[in-house]
Amino acid sequence: MRSNEVRISKKKPIFPVIPSLKRYLHSYQRAANLPLRYSELLHFDETVPVLDKNGNDTLWESPLYPSHEIDRIHERLKIIYAKLKASGNYRVVEHKAIERIEYCTFGNTHPFRVKIVNRLNDVYDYFYVKQADASRIYGLELEEILSPNQVNYLVDGDTLIEEHIAGIPGDVFASHRFDKSDYNHRRIAKEFVKFNERCVITLLGDMRSYNFVVQITPDFDDFQFRIRSIDFDQQGYEGNVKIYLPQFFRDNYAYVQISMANLTEKTVLQYQQEERSSLIQRARMERHRIADLRDASSDHVITTDENINRLKKGLAKYFKEDNYDHCKTMTDLIEQNLRNVINQIGS
What we know:
Blueprint: H1 19-27, H2 38-41, E1 46-51, E2 57-64, H3 67-86, E3 96-104, E4 112-118, E5 124-131, H4 134-146, E6 153-156, E7 159-163, E8 168-169, H5 170-176, H6 185-202, E9 212-218, E10 223-229, H7 253-262, H8 265-285, H9 287-297, H10 305-319, H11 330-346
Antiparallel strand pairs: 1-2, 2-3, 3-4, 4-5, 5-7, 6-7, 8-9, 9-10
Helix pairs in contact: 1-9, 4-9, 6-7, 6-8, 8-11, 10-11
């Protein structure tokens, strides 16, 4: 593995949810009738910066709403949480309260983060209200279908609701946890290699360390690690293949270093093959859902012809396969990636 810095020069546009995608979302219980839309949360008077415990700016802001609107907003956010977590069963939120709403102008979809607290025991949870972006929805679906992770979200028109994905932010983990003596660096490196491979096959881009989290699970004799994306805004848009390889981002250099120090070329290839085999197994199990997603996205323009043509060449070089000429969409490219992986595993 090697690291050459890559950058995303322009912010990706937000793509609308087209009718075929709406039908897909309805078929797979992702569509919902929400009592509050994203646009309604934008009706705040002003904001104040949100600082972390050390007084540093978090890039999030606390919106201040008119006093006569607060109760209505909070009640409807509780209903949304019940729909997200319990199919609309309101009993799950009877003893919960909205403690805080935060707004971020840093991300593509300008999300709102909502903190909801159980008043009986102070246990809290988060969820997000965002602008519905088709690219992000395709990324969430591919994560659900092809990764070892499950994602929970709902869509209503221009509004996207997402469950919070727990974990230690990748940049925080690299700067504060790498030196823990009881963490096996080889296991961390193994997971980064697998994550890297999964991203390029599914065309999940911009996985800089602050766009993924690390989940730690104590095992009977060691710790297990899993890297999970928390940002799907750059799903299948960019034309540079390196955008889909986390190893090429300067922000991930610590992960590249730990991989180079603990893995040989032979073990890297082994872990890549393991991830490819797991991914193909999941693709075979979910082949009908993948076909439905392909049909939903086949006429959806979510990038430029220039990006597709450039990415064809990059993927052909990466997989050492010259069979991308027929691909006309990002969906075609992902399908061809899967075919190449199947052929290489079988050979």
